[in-house]
């Protein structure tokens, strides 16, 4: 058994399910601090709003690009202190999974692999912008996926469909 098989979970079973991380990269990064330097003297409790998004693109029979978008907006009063946006991406090899398991893998395992990198990039941007350190809290992508699947099933029932999960192309939108 090769070292790659051990690392990717194939377990040495030919044709068994395999999950590999082929490449991780920053696809897009943006930081804006429109009110500087005046915002550094603002009194009041800053308010933070975080938005997550996910996009999945099938690249080949067993390769998928997953892009996890994290947008963090900090406001003080009615002024925007900063806006940090990161699109952390990865190419993942997934083979041997049934369609439902593939959907789950793309909606949970892939963003779990990407999030620590996005979190670090956001933290670095904020500190580089002259603001106090900020560490995004861990996210339960399994719970987010389950909620999204529940909403898709309700929507499908409302449209008279069978309630199945959406295809891998739109899997796990957070």
**Quaternary class:** single chain
Q: Give the helix/strand class.
A: alpha+beta
The level of helicity is: 25-40%
The tally of structural domains comes to 1
Rounded mean pLDDT is: 85
Radius of gyration: 19 Å
> What is the CATH superfamily label?
SecB-like
Main pleated-sheet profile: 4 strands, antiparallel
Number of helices: 3
**Helix-strand topology string:** HEEEEHH
Strand order across the biggest sheet? 1-4-3-2
| CATH architecture assignment name | Roll
| Strands, total number | 4
Q: Could you list the spans in which at least 5 consecutive residues all have pLDDT below 50?
A: 1-8, 162-174
Shape: elongated
Spatial separation of the terminal alpha carbons: 37 Å
* Beta-strand percentage range: 25-35%
Topology, please?
Layout: H1 3-8, E1 18-32, E2 47-58, E3 63-76, E4 79-95, H2 99-128, H3 141-158
Antiparallel strand pairs: 1-4, 2-3, 3-4
Describe the structure.
The longest helix is centred in the middle third of the chain and has 30 residues, at 99-128. The two termini are 37 Å apart. This protein has three helices and four strands. 31% of the residues lie in helices and 33% in strands. The protein is elongated and about 60 Å long. Helix 2 (99-128) crosses helix 3 (141-158). The protein has helices at 3-8, 99-128, 141-158; strands at 18-32, 47-58, 63-76, 79-95. The protein is of the alpha+beta class. A four-stranded antiparallel beta sheet has the order 1-4-3-2. It has a single domain (14-160), classed as Roll (Bacterial Protein-export protein SecB).
């Amino acid at each position: 058994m090769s070292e790659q098989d051990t690392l990717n979970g194939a377990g040495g079973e030919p044709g068994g399910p395999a999950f590999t991380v082929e490449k991780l990269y920053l696809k897009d990064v943006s930081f804006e601090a429109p009110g500087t330097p005046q915002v550094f003297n603002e009194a009041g409790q800053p308010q933070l709003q975080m938005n997550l998004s996910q996009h999945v693109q099938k690249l080949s029979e067993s390769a998928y690009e997953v892009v996890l978008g994290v947008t963090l907006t900090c406001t003080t009063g009615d002024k925007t202190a900063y806006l940090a946006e990161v699109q952390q991406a990865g190419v993942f090899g997934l083979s041997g999974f049934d369609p439902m398991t593939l959907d789950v893998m793309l909606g949970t395992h892939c963003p779990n692999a990407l999030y620590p990198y996005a979190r670090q990039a956001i933290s670095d941007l904020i500190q580089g912008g002259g603001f106090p350190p900020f560490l995004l809290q861990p996210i339960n992508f399994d719970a987010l996926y389950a909620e999204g699947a529940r909403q898709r099933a309700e929507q499908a029932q409302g449209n008279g469909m069978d309630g199945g999960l959406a295809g891998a192309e739109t899997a796990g939108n957070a």
